[in-house]
Amino acid sequence: MAALLEVRDLQVEFRTRDGIAKAVNGVTYSVDAGETLAVLGESGSGKSVTAQAVMGILDSPPGFVTGGEIVFQGKDLLKMGAEERRKTRGDKMAMIFQDALSSLNPVLSVGYQLGEMFRVHRGASKKDARAKAVELMERVRIPAAKARVDDYPHQFSGGMRQRIMIAMALALDPDLIIADEPTTALDVTVQAQVMDLLAELQRETNMGLILITHDLGVVADVADKIAVMYAGRIVEAASVHDIYRAPAHPYTRGLLDSIPRLDLKGQELYAIKGLPPNLLAIPPGCAFNPRCPRARSVCRTDRPPVYDVTDDAGRPLEPPRGSACHFWKEQLHDRPV
Amino acid sequence: MRDPHSERPDDVDPLANAGTGGPELPNSTEVGIDVATEEAESLENADYTHPGDPGTATSATEARSLWGHAWRDLRRNPIFLVSALLIVFLVFVSLWPSVVAGGSPYDCDLAHSREGASGSHPFGFDLQGCDVYNRTVYGARASVSVGVFATLGAALLGTVLGGLAGYFGGWWDGVLSRITEIFFGIPILLGGLVFLSVVPSGSIWPVIGFIVLLGWPQIARIARGSVITAKQNDYVQAARSLGASNSRIMLRHVLPNAVAPIIVVATIALGTYIALEATLSYLGVGLKPPTISWGQDISTAAPQYRNAPHMLLWPAAWLSVTVLAFIMLGDAVRDALDPKLR
Amino acid sequence: MGRYVIRRLLQMIPVFIGSTFLIFLMVYALGDPVTAFFGDRRPDPATAAAIRHEYNLDKPLWQQYLIYMGKIFTGDFGTAFNGEPVVDLMARAWPITIRLALLAVFFQAIVGITLGVLSGLRRGRALDTSVLLATLVVISIPTFVMGYLLQYLFGVNWNIAPVSVSAAAPLDELILPAIVLALVSLAYTTRLTRTSVSENARADYIRTAVAKGLPGRRITVRHLLRNSLIPVVTFLGIDIGNLMGGAIVTERIFNIQGVGYQLYQGILRQNAPTVVGFVTILVIIFLLANLLVDLLYAVLDPRIRLA
After folding, report:
1. Which whole number is the average pLDDT over B64-87?
2. Cβ <8 Å between B17 and C196
3. Are the C-beta atoms of C199 and C208 separated by less than 8 Å?
4. Residue whose C-alpha is closest to residue B82's, from B261, B321, B289
5. Which subunits have 3 or more CB–CB pairs within 8 Å of chain A?
6. d(C-alpha C278, C-alpha C272), whole Å
7. What pLDDT, on the 0 to 100 scale, is given for residue C41?
């Protein structure tokens, strides 16, 4: 069975006054129905830009998709006409943004903004759209939905606003939802509630979910597989289980080590040294080499392809696993540097 | 220099544009008097930190990098170069008009009244038979000095009063807001007419005094807003917690970071003050003879302009170009200082 | 909403008192209404003192102000320099100027907002650049210069508009003066709308609207414009004061016998009742216009209405 969404060798660049920034440089990933893919990376790694390219909401200019394919339900979105593509947005695929306060229109009631989905995509009447909006608000468990449907975004708490964003994404039962840091702006206690809600709704509807985050802690509970991005590329792709057990890329190792752990309380917290690269001047060879504890001369000259990670006998893993590190084997077995 | 994937640090609160620097509710009478204000306020709410400078920036380096970037942008901006050259020329003409002029502006011969252009008199003659070119050249001094001194006065007064109100808040802030509202209630041209009609002198000083009197609230409002914004920065809080004195915090940390919007508004205001002076002189209450001013010359030329348009057009053109030069300069500086446009 | 309106009304009281008192101060304290009364002749001290007493000019300034305001609220605005009651002057002048101002606001709003939206949506393109340059030039040409220029071009050269407006000041004769009066404000409106539109176009909620799959027209009209026009509406309200000031110049150029004309005469002849009377009404109109704008503001922005 073909995947719900397949991104192949996607290239996105930003044409700025200071030069061309390769924000996404050959990203490939796929999501199946009912599956959750977590895309991990620091800000500037290209994880959000990839998602925006998939949704077709890239700021253009300065952003341009310059290559690759985005195949959604068997069709390449990049070859679609603008109107056809607009109709898939919101209907077949939807997006949840990080900051619900700024992402909701401040001067329109939440009922209007929810109902708008039905009015535009389904041609519903004003009255029906409003009823649907109340229904949606109840579905994401907003108390007293009927009374609050005419309220404005600023009258809700942060967690409730994010629920409204989720409701808006769910409105037309899309096949794919992209959640861009959906809990980052929320309090820790509310984060868990919102994440649980999202996971539960996904189970109910069997939709595909792309969860973009920089927080490895969030990922472990909900994701099926993980793609780790660095400087516009995927450096490691694997199942959650595999990656947590033994990462095959030094960057992933670094990310895992920088999670605070209760059992290591009192020890100094690990931090990846250095800063993410300037996208206007990505280092030659492996982009991670200036920060990598395993870097050797080959890393400074040859860009590593995405190697298939195999077991000790050289057989491919199931599910398949990839790492863009020349020395993935050493990393996988955690041999000392 | 903006990082293309920074998670949109420049989100604009639509209210920010409505002109409130502080947390109180916006209302229309508290909004700036013109668009320069509006635009500068979007400036003061902007995020000046550049992703390229890692988090080591202190207030001083932050302000310096802002001006550094701005200067680099300005040098490449043709609008800035043209307006700057024009302004240098105008300042030169107002300081040493005799170098550019062909003779005295008071050297008039009624026999030449309203005559058109001729060899040594490229702009022709006015009603009194004075050389229009010479009068236009000498007229620059009044306009430029009114503009410069009035702007300096209004900017200083406005920055001090508005800055203190923004920094200390409290009752003085409330009083200042009410005073500003009162001044905004009087149309500036009307106030000028009433005020200057009772002043007998026709020199530049009463005009400057009046413009400062009615112009400072606009600058004060900007200064207040940008000081409030700068005050909330982490390094100011840090300096405070380290026990720095108020005056040190204000001069070393707040002012360098709050001054950009003030400069932009002041530059644009300079242009509008020159236009205001000319309008008041045109109405007969601003500069009066023997001071030579474009507004006056336009006023005397006006009844005759259908027969002798050159008497009106030349001073009018110089006046407009002068105002344009300052407004363009302000515009260019604003664009250079506004990181959102990068 | 009701509380908001009441608060705004209360806030207007000190502004009204302050603005009118400031003008009163300028006219009565800086000028000398008595000498103005006699024109070029020098009054003998006894007569002057008698007049001073008659018109309460010997009382402290704040008392004079209170007496004056008390009279105004009973409809007594005093007499103009030609002996005519100021109220009669007003009855003739205000309708003309209000027509002129409304026409100017109409041009300013319609043309300014349209141009601003068009260039704001096409930021950096040819249309945007030319609109920006054009507004810069318009802002730089003082109204009185622009007035003569357009009067010459349209009135004298092409002969398609009257050079001066007749006493009745019908609407069609006021079109050119209204354009002259509106132009600078129109340019500011355009620039403000442009800034506002292009800033809001980059706002997160617009990105959300795109991600929802809304058609472009709906995004522009329902989501972008509504937010972008909030500061523009505010500016239009504030600008009514400037428009009234500009009327002095425009009415002089086109020989319109409206408020600007009467005020100008009053100021030149130092006729205190005319000046203070007209200005008082002007301040009231300005404040009422701002109240209207505040209400509109509250309608447009629920964050104000429901705060």
Report:
1. 82
2. yes
3. no
4. B321
5. B, C
6. 10
7. 62
Q: Higher model confidence: residue A98 or residue C182? A: C182
- Collect all residues of chain A within an 8 Å Cβ-Cβ radius of residue B1: 18
Q: Averaged over A73-88, what is the pLDDT?
A: 89
SS3 B137: helix
Q: Average of pLDDT values for B324-330?
A: 88
> Closest-CA residue in chain B for A231?
B5
pLDDT score for A333: 83
Model pLDDT, residue B17: 32
From chain A, pick out residues whose CB is under 8 angstroms from the CB of C230.
107
CB contact under 8 A, C141 and B323: yes
Contacts of C179 (CB under 8 A, 6+ apart): C104, C107, C150
Would you say C192 and C111 are in contact if contact means Cβ atoms under 8 Å apart? no
Cα–Cα nearest to A44, from B53, B54, B4: B4
Q: Name the CA dihedral angle for A46, A50, A55, A57, rounded to a multiple of 10 degrees.
A: 40
pLDDT at position B114: 63
CB contacts, 8 Å: B11 with chain A: 99, 102
Nearest CA in chain A to C218: A120
Q: In angstroms, what separates the C-alpha of A181 from chain C's closest C-alpha?
A: 14
C160 touches chain B (CB under 8 A): no
The C-alpha atoms of residue A166 and residue A117 are separated, in whole angstroms, by 13
Q: Do C141 and C241 belong to one domain?
A: yes
State whether the Cα torsion A242-A246-A250-A254 is positive or negative. positive
* Cβ contacts of B206 within 8 Å, gap of 6 or more: B196, B199
Best of A107, A110, A172 to disrupt the C interface by mutation (most C CBs within 10 Å)? A107
Q: What is the pTM of this model?
A: 0.80
* Confidence (pLDDT) at B129: 66
pLDDT at site B218: 86
**Chain C residues with beta carbon closer than 8 angstroms to that of B83:** none
Pairing assessment for the beta strands A233-239 and A225-230 based on DSSP bridges: antiparallel
How far apart CA A189 and CA A145 sit, in angstroms, is 22
As a whole number of Å, the end-to-end CA separation of chain B is 7
Q: Would C87 be classed as within a structural domain?
A: no
- Provide the CATH number for the domain formed by B77-341 in this structure: 1.10.3720.10
CB contact under 8 A, A98 and B7: yes
For residue A62, what are its two tokens? 């300065």
Q: Which residues of B touch A16 (CB under 8 A)?
A: 2, 4
Under an 8 A CB cutoff, do A17 and B342 touch? yes
Is residue C123 a contact partner of residue C191, using CB atoms and an 8 Å limit? no
* Residue C158 domain-assigned (yes or no): yes
pLDDT, chain B, mean:
74
- Reported as a pLDDT band with limits 50, 70 and 90, residue B15 is very low
Do A43 and B6 lie within an 8 Å CB cutoff?
yes
Tokens in use for B179? 């005073």
Domain shared by C50 and C173, yes or no: no
Nearest to B48 by CA among B303, B327, B340: B340
Q: Is C81 on the interface with B (CB under 8 A)?
A: no
Two structure tokens written together for A45: 């790694």
Q: Which residues of chain C have pLDDT under 50?
A: none
Residues of chain B with CATH 1.10.3720.10: 77-341
Write out the residues of chain A at the interface with chain C, using a CB-CB cutoff of 8 A. 55-57, 59, 86-91, 94-95, 97, 99, 102-109, 116-117, 120-121, 152, 154-155, 168
Q: Is A95 on the interface with B (CB under 8 A)?
A: no
Same domain? For C165 and C258 the reply is: yes
Note whether B189 contacts C31, CB cutoff 8 Å: no
Residue pLDDT, tens place only, B189-225: 888 888 888 777 778 888 899 899 888 888 888 888 8
Q: Which structural domain range is residue C45 located in?
A: 2-72
User: CB distance B29–C30 less than 8 Å?
Assistant: no
Chain B nearest-CA distance from A18, in A, is 6
